[in-house]
Amino acid sequence: MGRLMVLLLAAAVFASALGVVFSTHESRRLFVELQALQKVRDEMNAQWGRLQLEQSTWATHGRIERIANEKLDMIIPPPGAVVIVRP
Question: Would you give the distance in Å from CA 24 to the centre of its chain?
Fold first, then answer.
């Protein structure tokens, strides 16, 4: 009976040790994955910032006016040609 208890306790300790090893390994694996995902997130945030800056550059009034003049032959109407319609 005593040997059986010792054997059962030894098996429980061994199973517990295997559980600790597995959970430690899984924790490290998940931490590495988390770091990789955070790096991807940081790169995407940087790219998002660059894209917002590029969008604001493309949408400046001066650029739109220059393209309208050069490519569409549009001009700003003289003040006498502007009619304001009031409701």
Answer: 28
